[in-house]
Inverse folding.
């Protein structure tokens, strides 16, 4: 017992009921060797170590033709960081991703018009953090976030 707390007694009935409830929950769990469940509609992401024959060559061709890492991730079903690593290991010089001066101008105009960083980033096909960084470099004052952190 801790301090002056009264002892807590649980009747055998309650213990049996709790055990029964726990068994019901356990019975609903998938088997330990079952694959992880994914959200409905979420893309299947495979490990970059599972590259199929010709996929790396296709990625290299697509990337050199101008596809972004995000485009490659959507097309091939791998995560963007894994694709980046695979291209680097293959000796491919990655393009500097970011915003051109004209895109920063557009981002500044859209932000001043009330658009969110996320909306702007989706429109310009870059990360919201990239948009934020470039706007701050331009001297734009960021609005407070709408959700508490």
């Amino acid at each position: 017992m801790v301090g002056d707390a009264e002892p807590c007694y649980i009747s055998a009935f309650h213990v049996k009921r709790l055990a029964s409830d726990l068994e019901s929950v356990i019975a609903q769990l998938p088997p330990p060797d079952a694959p992880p469940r994914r959200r409905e509609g979420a893309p299947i992401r495979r490990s970059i170590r599972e590259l199929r024959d010709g996929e790396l060559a296709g990625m290299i061709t697509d990337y050199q033709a101008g596809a972004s890492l995000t485009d490659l991730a959507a097309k091939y079903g791998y995560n963007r960081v894994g694709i980046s690593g695979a291209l680097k290991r293959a000796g491919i010089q990655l393009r500097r991703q970011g915003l051109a001066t004209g895109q920063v101008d557009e981002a500044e105009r859209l932000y001043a018009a009330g658009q969110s960083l996320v909306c702007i980033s989706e429109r310009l096909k870059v990360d919201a953090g990239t948009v934020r960084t470039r706007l701050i470099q331009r001297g734009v004052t960021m609005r407070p976030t709408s959700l508490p952190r």
